[in-house]
Specification:
163 residues, alpha+beta, four-stranded antiparallel β-sheet, 5 helices, 33% helix, 23% strand
């Protein structure tokens, strides 16, 4: 891996310098989040203890998370959609309200045709309709929505920031 330096941003916007070795550790964990620290250390040229310390620092700084990712279809959620939302006024209260909804997996403020984009995961079409019609459109400040229902997921990766 070429030596490089990157600036990673946590959810609160504070920058954390991530060196090439930390990026290599992140890449190892992105390939297999359960990979032993000893194996990671061998791959990146550090001791198991040094890898453990770096991983903990990356977690503490909010640079990365280690989580289990499920396939929504296999756990009973048959409908996913991306919803574009236009808002009147301040975006923050609407984004906060959406972030508090369990069905909203991804909430991002955007530039372009929509003010916010929200990925929602629902049990079925009735649940999706309830989310859009009764919960999202009724939020104060929401002016309009446009829904993009997922027919088939072709690719989903979690390799951001390292390649």
């Amino acid at each position: 891996m070429a030596s490089r330096s990157a600036d990673s941003r946590t959810g609160n916007g504070s920058p954390h310098a991530v060196d090439a070795v930390s990026l290599a550790i992140i890449e190892q964990l992105q390939e297999d989040g359960r990979r032993p620290y000893a194996a990671i250390g061998k791959a990146v040229g550090l001791s198991e203890a040094a890898v453990r310390q770096r991983v903990q620092k990356l977690l503490d700084q909010g640079v990365m998370q280690i989580v289990a990712v499920t396939d929504p279809l296999t756990v009973g959620f048959r409908r996913q959609a991306m919803v574009g939302i236009n808002v009147e006024g301040d975006l923050d209260p609407v984004a906060e309200a959406l972030s508090a909804m369990a069905e909203c997996e991804y909430v991002v403020m955007t530039a372009g045709s929509f003010d916010l984009m929200v990925e929602i995961v629902c049990e079925d079409d009735d649940h999706l309709l309830e989310m859009i019609n009764k919960r999202i459109r009724t939020l104060p400040g929401v002016r309009s929505t446009e829904s993009f229902v997922y027919l088939k997921l072709k690719k989903q990766t979690y390799m951001w920031g390292t390649r």
